[in-house]
Design goal:
6 helices; HIT family, subunit A; alpha+beta; globular
């Protein structure tokens, strides 16, 4: 029988359609097609991108925007928001508007065009998580920005427009609706129980051990109770922290280890699967929050949103998270 499940943070309902039950081999993934030709993110093409705002791995004596690097962060050549100007908030009757002020940056995760993020060596992958931290810290100094959205689109169906491994940051002058909903939902739980809902989720999942995909001494990867997509995973720090930018090098190393394992388990279940991941963290310049817990959400692109989903706000998931967790845990790496 189908089952309705409620997300304890957002109050969002998910339909687990067991009658549509699937195994990993039932999901068809469109192979990524290599177009070849010119890639603006490859070494020797640095002059085709805007000037870098962060670089790791280049010798100090070499000039900026030269070819010797391990990771670069550059402004997006076609940004969703622009950094120059003022917000100029205005009302138009009952409507509100402001200028599209923000920052839109691209994190080039490796100089090697053929590299896939899930299979990067530890010393290369950790640079990405370090870059996220360092760029959020820098962008937080701009008083116009309220939040920095960090995300990765892997594969065409997930929205990737370039094959070269990269992720993105967008600094926003307002808080995203999803972040506001999480903050409000977790605060309501905290006021009622005087505990962080994310911490309670972690404790219960470790105790029950039916949706715990993998863990290390600092992080856990969970299949959420009410997942929007088959094989959705959340990566969460064991200790309570509301801000990602406070992570030290030991934490970033442990995060890299569990992120790599989680994505490799996903790829072993469904080879070549396309996915998005998004960092959820507290607003810029906010004090430490007792009710909020930063985390990454990984959502594979294995289901489509059609009329029912758009009209109802419900997601339909054909496979329970307990089953996906079992598949993820049983694969050989």
């Amino acid at each position: 029988m189908p089952e309705l499940r409620k997300d304890p943070i957002l109050g969002r309902w998910i339909i687990i359609a067991r009658e549509r039950g699937k195994r990993p081999t039932d999901f068809v993934v469109e192979p990524s097609k290599t177009k070849g030709g010119f890639c603006p993110l490859c070494p020797e093409h640095e002059k085709t991108t805007p000037d870098e705002v962060l670089v790791y791995g280049r010798e100090p004596w070499m000039g900026p925007n030269s070819s010797s690097w391990k990771l670069r962060v550059v402004p997006n050549k076609y940004p969703a928001l622009v950094i120059e100007g003022e917000l100029d908030k205005q009302g138009e009757g009952l409507y509100d508007r402001m200028n599209g002020i923000g920052a839109h940056e691209v994190v080039i995760e490796s100089p090697n065009h053929e590299d896939q993020f899930a299979f990067l060596p530890h010393d290369q992958m950790i640079l990405t998580f370090r870059a996220f931290r360092d760029r959020i810290r820098d962008l937080s100094q701009d008083e116009r920005f309220a939040y920095v959205m960090v995300f990765k689109n892997y594969g065409k169906s997930a929205g990737a427009s370039l094959e070269h491994s990269h992720s993105q940051l967008v600094a926003l002058p307002i808080l995203p609706r999803m972040v506001v909903a999480e903050l409000e939902g977790s605060l309501a739980y905290y006021k009622y129980k005087d505990r962080c809902v994310f911490c309670d989720i972690i404790r219960q999942e470790i105790q029950q051990d039916i949706r715990l995909v993998c863990e290390n001494d600092k992080f856990v990867t969970l299949a959420p109770f009410a997942p929007r997509s088959p094989f959705e995973m959340w990566i969460m720090p064991r200790e309570h922290h509301s801000s990602y930018i406070n992570q030290d090098e030991a934490s970033l190393s442990a995060l890299t280890n569990i992120f790599s394992e989680s994505l490799r388990r996903l790829d072993s279940c469904i080879p070549g699967v396309h996915y998005n991941f998004v960092l959820h963290t507290q607003p810029l310049r906010s004090k430490s929050l007792g009710h909020y817990h930063w985390h990454f959400e990984i959502v594979p692109k294995l289901s489509s949103i059609a009329g029912f989903e758009w009209g109802s706000g419900f997601y339909i998931n054909p496979i329970p998270p307990e089953d996906t967790c079992r598949y993820l845990r049983e694969v050989e790496l």
